[in-house]
Amino acid sequence: MKRFLVLLLALFVTASLGAGCKKEETAGADTVVLRDFERYDPDFMGLQMSVNFGKIEVNTDERFVKSGSQSAKLTVYGGYYYNDPPEVGIPFYSTSKGYNYRELSGFSAVRMSAYNAADFDVPLYWNFTFFDGQSSPVETVVLKSGWNDVEMAVDADTLNMFYDLENCSGVRLGFDDYSVQGYTLETAPAIYLDDMELVRRHDDYSAPAVDIVVDPFEICSFEKAYQAHILKPASEKGFIPNTEVVSSDNGVLPTQGEKMMKVSFPKGSGGYARLSFSSKLFPIIDFTQFKDHPEDYKIAYDVYNAAPLSTNIATYYIWGGIKEWPNASLAWGVNMEATNTALPQNEWITYEMPLSTIYGWNKSTLESEFHMFVMFDDGLPAGSSFYLDNFRIVKCA
Ligand SMILES: [Ca+2]
Q: For the chain, does the N or the C end have fewer beta carbons within 10 angstroms?
C-alpha cells in the first residue's frame, strides 16, 4: 500500500516553482524556508548528524548551488556502527533561533533540491520524527545523478493515526552505509542540498481527533475503517511489508467478520520487519479491568502463513509508556517481553498469551501504558504473505 506520495522529478525544470525566485517567509506565502544554507547558524549548526554520517560542509561551488550562494555538501559515508545508517535530522523547531514549524498538519510537504554528484543512483530515506520519540515509516526516493527536486509529502490523515501532528520535531534524512561498499571518506558519494522549504496547506486543516472505538474484548478486528491504518509497517533495512485489508484472498477467509489484514513482502523480509499498533489504540483498551483476575484472560490473535515455507512470528509487549521499538530505554523483562509462535504453512494458527504471565513480571504492569507489535522472521522469500485477524482479549475456558 502506498501511503505517501513521493514525487521525484529528476532533472526536471519547471517554471511553476518560480525558478530563481527566493521565497520569502511571510504570512500567506505558499512556502516557508526551512534551510537555504546561506547562514551557518542555524542552517548548518542545527543539523543533527548521526555520529557515523561522514561530513557536512558549506559549499560555495555554484555548480552545486540552486539559489543564493551556498548549499550544504553532504559526504555520505557511514561506517562507525554497521547497523546505524548515516542520518541527519533537520529540526522544525528552535527556541533560541526563533522558528517553530512543529505543527506538521499546517504543511502539505517538505521540498528540497538535491544534487547527486555521484554517477550512480543514491537512495535517500526520509521520515518525520516527533517529540514523543516516535517516527513515521521510512520512505525512499532515488536521487539520480545531477539535480533532483525532492518532495516529501505529509499524509496528515494517515500520520494522525499514530502521531501528535502538533509536535513534529523534524524530518530525518538517511542514506546507505557506503563504508561497507568499498568507499572511503574521500570517494563516498557527495549530495548537495539546497532550498529546503515547507509547503503550507491553505485549507485550514486541523488533525481530527482519532475516532478509535473497540467492541468489548476487541483489540483489532479489521472490520472498522480506521483499522486499515492502525498497524505501522517498519523495518531496519528497507524490507518494509505492505499491508492491506482484504476480505477473501487466494482462498483464505477471515476468522472473524468479513475482513482481515494481508501482510506481504515484495522484497522478502529482513531487518526486523514488523507491524506496530498505533500507540493511540491502547489507551482505549482498559487492561486494568483484568488486573484482579489476570489468570482468567489472555491476548489472542489469528495468523495464517501463506509464505512458501514454515516460519515463526514473534509478538512483543511493551509497558511503561514506551511507544515504539527500538528504544534505548527498553529493558527486557522489565518493560518488554516477547513470545514466539511457529507458523506451519497454509493454516490459521491462534496465538495466545495469558495475561497472568504478563502480570507475573510486576504487580502494576497492567496499569501502565501498553504497546504491542509483531515481528516476522528475517529471510522470508520475496512474495511471501501472511494474514492476520481478530486481535482480542479472550476469557479462558
Ligand atoms: Ca476480521
A: C
Among candidate residues 211, 215, 263, 205, the one with its CA nearest the CA of residue 239: 263
Q: For the chain, give the mean pLDDT.
A: 87
- Region 278-294: what's the mean pLDDT? 88
- The alpha carbon of 207 and the centre of ligand 1 are apart by a number of angstroms equal to 27
Distance 224 CA to ligand 1 centre (A): 9
Which of 7, 4, 282 minimizes the C-alpha distance to 128? Answer: 4
Distance CA 162, CA 132 (A): 11
What are the distances in angstroms from CA 373 to CA 98, 156, 279, 291, 301?
38, 23, 10, 21, 12
Q: How far is the CA of 365 from the centre of ligand 1 (A)?
A: 28
This prediction has a pTM of 0.75
Distance 220 CA to ligand 1 centre (A): 8
Give the pLDDT of residue 63.
97
Pairwise CA distance, residues 155 & 105, whole Å = 9
How far, in Å, is the centroid of ligand 1 from the Cα of 227? 10
Q: pLDDT (tens digit, 9 = 90+) per residue, 98-156?
A: 999 999 999 999 999 999 999 999 999 999 999 988 888 888 899 999 999 999 999 98
- 196-214, pLDDT tens digit by residue? 999 999 887 776 667 789 9
* Ligand 1 mean position, distance from CA 371 (Å): 21
Mean pLDDT across 80-102:
86
Pairing verdict, β 190-200 and 370-376: unpaired
CA of 223 to the centre of ligand 1 (A): 5
**CA of 110 relative to ligand 1 center, distance in Å:** 37
Domains, in order of start, for the chain: 6-200 (2.60.120.260), 218-395 (2.60.120.260)
Between CA 196 and CA 113 the distance in angstroms is: 7
- Residue 337, CA distances (Å) to 121, 233, 242, 247 in order: 40, 20, 25, 32
6 has a pLDDT exceeding 90: no
CA of 389 from ligand 1 middle (Å) equals 5
pLDDT band of 23, cuts 50, 70, 90? very low
